Amino acid sequence: RQLERSLVLKLYDRRLTHYGAAFDLTEAITLKSSGVFLGSQADLQTCRTELAQWKSGEVSLIISAHALKAYNDLQDALGKAPGGVGGNGELFTREQAERVVFARNAFRRALREDVMSLNTGDLRDRGLWEEAD
Asked: Alpha-carbon distance 43 to 129, whole Å?
């Protein structure tokens, strides 16, 4: 039981260490009030590349299956060519922009859930946490 508690706490610590960087990387993926502009294709490709670098290594070992699916969905959305029908190849259409922002929000929510699922209440419920006297 102590070993399991120790491992869960280490996982929690590692997630806290790494997940903040993903929030920083995805902060710029937003819609302007016009609803169409996300940024240039180059900016989004930079974000996509930096997220791939972030996920390599230790993050691949600590990310949950749910968060990994959300990550892959975001990478897919970022990888789509901007423009589409009526687009100019540099700016995303409103629909594309909304899809990218939706994927970004789902990814960030999944990361929060990863961290929150390891809070002390969950540990207590599993019998892995004891309050100090």
From this structure: 44
